[in-house]
TrEMBL record:
Pathway(s) annotated for this protein in UniProt: Amino-acid biosynthesis; L-valine biosynthesis; L-valine from pyruvate: step 1/4; Amino-acid biosynthesis; L-isoleucine biosynthesis; L-isoleucine from 2-oxobutanoate: step 1/4
Known EC number: 2.2.1.6
PROSITE patterns: TPP_ENZYMES
Entry protein name: Acetolactate synthase
Organism: Nostoc minutum NIES-26
Length: 615
C-alpha cells in the first residue's frame, strides 16, 4: 500500500506487489519527481502502475513526442539540478530512439536513469515483435546496464543504478525491464537509498596529500599559471573553490564548453572559453603559460588543437575523479585523482596551514593577458542591411542575464558560449557528442525543474528542425520555454567549413527549400510565434518574448554568411587562429591592470584608480 508521509517520503509496508510498482516506488524513494517518457506495448505494465502513482501526486510524468526528446529532457533536468534525470521508453524502436540522448549524456558525464521496456523473458532472443537488444546496443555509451530477470531484484537494482549514476564520474545507467517482470507479483521489500554496497566500485574522492603538496609547490613556483576548468568542476559544485584558488594566487581562468559557469565570467581573472572557437586571449594564454592547472577537464581535441603543441611550455597539474582521463591525452607532472571539490578544499586548507597569502607575483603575466584581451576582443558585427547573430545573443543576454540557457549545436552554440555570461549549472549544451536537436527538449527539462526561472533555448534553423515535435510537449504542459532561432537558411557551421576547407562547395548544407514558416508552425501548436527581420525590432521583440506567459518561438532572420571567429583550424595549434580582429596601434607605455577589478592604470600608479587595490 503506497502512502505519503508529512515529508512526502513514500512508505510501503511489505506486500505483494508487481515489478512495475517496485520500480516506481524505488524511484520515489530516490527522490524522483519527474519522469520524461513515451509509452508502448512492452512498457505498458509500468505505465499502468504509473497511472496509479501519478494520481497521488507523488510523481509527474511528462509525455514527450519522441523518445529522443525524453532523454534530452532528462539530461537537461540533471544538468540544471545536479540530480539524476529519469526517462522511459518502450522496447524496440522506443529504446533505440533513446540512443542518441543516452550517448549525449554519456559523453558529457550526466547522471541519468534510462528505463526501457523489453519483450517477455521467454521471448528474448527470438526476434519477437519490437525486440531489440538495447542492453548490447548501449554497452559503449552507458556507465552500467541491467536487465531485470527477477522482480525481487528491482529495489536493489534501482538503488545500485542511482548510486552508480551519481557517484564517481557521473553517467547514464540503463535498466531494461521485460514485460512479464513488470507484471509479476512478488513479496516486495523496499531497498533504501544509500544502503547498497557494490563490491569493486569505490571511486577515489580524496586526493593524495603528497600530490596536493606537490601541486602547491608548482603553483608557488609558477610565474605564468593558468586554470583550465572543465565540466568536472560543475559536476562537483566546485565553483567557490575555483574562485578562491584563482584569487589566492592571482591565476587567470579559462573554461571548456562544459565548464562554462564554473567561474564568474564578469571576474577580471576570467578569460572565457578556450579552444577551437575560444577567445583569442584564452588561447594565447594556454600557449604561453608555464603551468596549466587542469580542473575536471579531459584535454578534448576541440580544446587542444594540435595536441603536441598544446601548452607545450607548461608543466601540468591534472585534477580529475576519473583515473582513466589522467594521462590519457597529456601526461601531467602532478596527477591528482579525486573529486574536484574535495581536492580543492584540501589544497586550499593546506595553503592556509602554510600561511600562503595573495601576492602580486603573477602581475606581469596578468598585464600580458589583459593586453591580449584589449588587442583581440570578441567582436559584435553591425551590418547595414542585416542583424548579426552575435547582436541577437548579446541582446538576449542583456535582457535575461540570469536565465538558464540551453543550446543546440553549431555556430549559434559557439556564439552563445562566447557572449553569454552564465552562472553555475545555467549553461546547458551538448559538448562531447554535439547533438543537434538537444536544445528544446533540454530546456523543457530545465524549466520543469525550475518553473519560476527563465529558461531560454538558443537554436539554429537546422538544429531546431531536429526535435521540433517537442513543441507539442511545450503546448500540452504549458512549459514556458523561450526559443530564439538564429535563422540564416543554412546548416551554419557546415557551410563555414565548406567555405574554409572544401573550396566553397556547399554540398547539401542549404536549408531554404522546405524551411517551414516558423511563426505559423508555432501557431499550429498553439504557441506564440514571432519573426524579427530588422535591427529596430530586436530590443522590443526580445522584451515581448520574455514578458509572454507561455512558450514562445522567435525566428530571427540573421546575416546569411556570418562566420564564427576566432577559429583554430584542424591540425593547428591554439595560437594559430583565423578571424582575429586587426590589432590597434600599441600604446607607447604599457598600462598596469588591477588584479581585483581589471581596470587599466598608468604604470606610475601604486594603487588602482577604480577600486583602490594595491597594484
Amino acid at each position: 500500500m503506497l502512502t505519503q508521509s508529512a515529508t512526502t517520503t513514500p512508505v510501503v509496508t511489505l506486500q505483494r506487489a508487481t515489478g512495475g510498482f517496485a520500480l516506481l516506488d524505488s524511484l520515489l524513494r530516490h527522490g524522483v519527481e519527474y519522469i520524461f517518457g513515451y509509452p508502448g506495448g512492452a512498457i505498458l505494465p509500468i505505465y499502468d502502475d504509473l497511472y496509479k502513482v501519478e494520481a497521488t501526486g507523488a510523481i509527474k510524468h511528462i509525455l514527450v513526442r519522441h523518445e529522443q526528446g525524453a532523454a534530452h529532457a532528462a539530461d537537461g533536468y540533471a544538468r540544471a539540478t545536479g540530480k539524476v534525470g529519469v526517462c522511459f521508453g518502450t522496447s524496440g524502436p522506443g529504446a533505440t530512439n533513446l540512443v542518441t540522448g543516452i550517448a549525449t549524456a554519456y559523453m558529457d558525464s550526466i547522471p541519468m536513469i534510462v528505463v526501457t521496456g523489453q519483450v517477455n523473458r521467454k521471448s528474448i532472443g527470438t526476434d519477437a515483435f519490437q525486440e531489440t537488444d538495447i542492453y548490447g546496443i548501449t554497452l559503449p555509451i552507458v556507465k552500467h546496464s541491467y536487465v531485470v530477470r527477477d522482480p525481487a531484484d528491482m529495489g536493489r537494482i534501482v538503488a545500485e543504478a542511482f548510486h552508480i549514476a551519481s557517484t564517481g564520474r557521473p553517467g547514464p545507467v540503463l535498466i531494461d525491464v521485460p514485460k512479464d517482470v513488470a507484471l509479476e507479483e512478488f513479496d516486495y521489500t523496499p531497498v533504501e537509498p544509500g544502503s547498497v554496497k557494490l563490491r569493486g566500485y569505490r571511486p577515489t574522492v580524496k586526493g593524495n596529500p603528497r600530490q596536493v603538496n606537490a601541486a602547491i609547490k608548482l603553483i608557488r613556483e609558477s610565474r605564468r599559471p593558468l586554470l583550465y576548468v572543465g565540466g568536472g568542476a560543475i559536476a562537483s559544485n566546485a565553483h567557490e573553490q575555483v574562485k578562491e584558488l584563482a584569487e589566492l594566487f592571482n591565476i587567470p581562468v579559462t573554461t571548456t564548453l562544459m565548464g562554462i559557469g564554473a567561474f564568474d565570467e564578469h571576474h577580471p581573472l576570467a578569460l572565457g572559453m578556450l579552444g577551437m572557437h575560444g577567445t583569442a586571449y584564452a588561447n594565447f594564454a594556454v600557449t604561453d603559460c608555464d603551468l596549466l592547472i587542469c580542473v575536471g577537464a579531459r584535454f578534448d581535441d576541440r580544446v587542444t588543437g594540435k595536441l603536441d603543441e598544446f601548452a607545450s611550455h607548461a608543466k601540468v597539474i591534472h585534477i580529475d575523479i576519473d583515473p582513466a582521463e589522467v594521462g590519457k591525452n597529456r601526461v601531467p607532472e602532478v596527477p591528482i585523482v579525486g573529486d574536484v571539490k574535495n581536492v580543492l578544499v584540501d589544497l586550499l586548507r593546506r595553503c592556509k596551514q602554510l600561511g600562503i597569502k595573495n601576492t602580486a607575483k603573477t602581475q606581469e603575466w596578468l598585464n600580458l593577458v589583459n593586453r591580449w584581451r584589449e588587442e583581440y576582443p570578441l567582436e559584435v558585427p553591425h551590418h547595414a542591411d542585416s542583424i548579426s547573430p552575435q547582436e541577437v545573443i548579446v541582446e538576449v543576454g542583456r535582457q535575461a542575464p540570469h536565465a538558464f540557457y540551453t543550446t543546440d549545436v553549431g555556430q549559434h552554440q559557439m556564439w552563445a558560449a562566447q557572449f553569454l555570461k552564465n552562472g553555475p549549472r545555467r549553461w546547458i549544451s551538448s559538448a562531447g557528442l554535439g547533438t543537434m536537436g538537444f536544445g528544446v527538449p533540454a530546456a523543457m527539462g530545465a524549466k520543469v525543474a525550475f518553473p519560476d526561472e527563465e529558461v531560454i533555448c538558443i537554436s539554429g534553423d537546422a538544429s531546431f528542425q531536429m526535435c521540433l515535435q517537442e513543441l507539442g510537449t511545450l503546448a500540452q504542459y504549458g512549459i514556458n520555454v523561450k526559443t530564439v532561432i538564429m535563422n540564416n537558411g543554412w546548416q551554419g557551421m557546415v557551410r563555414q567549413w565548406q567555405q574554409a576547407f572544401y573550396g566553397e562547395r556547399y554540398s547539401c548544407s542549404n536549408m531554404e527549400v522546405g524551411m517551414p514558416d516558423i511563426e505559423l508552425l508555432a501557431k499550429a501548436y498553439g504557441i506564440k510565434g514571432m519573426v524579427i527581420r530588422d535591427r529596430d525590432q530586436l530590443q522590443d521583440a526580445i522584451a515581448e518574448m520574455l514578458a509572454h506567459k507561455g512558450p514562445v518561438i522567435v525566428d530571427v532572420r540573421v546575416t546569411r554568411d556570418e562566420n564564427c571567429y576566432p577559429m583554430v583550424a584542424p591540425g593547428k595549434n591554439n595560437a594559430q587562429m583565423v578571424g582575429l580582429p586587426k590589432q590597434p596601434p600599441k600604446a607607447a607605455v604599457e598600462s598596469v591592470y588591477c588584479s581585483h577589478c581589471g581596470a587599466s592604470n598608468p604604470p606610475a600608479h601604486n594603487f588602482c584608480s577604480e577600486c583602490g587595490t594595491k597594484l
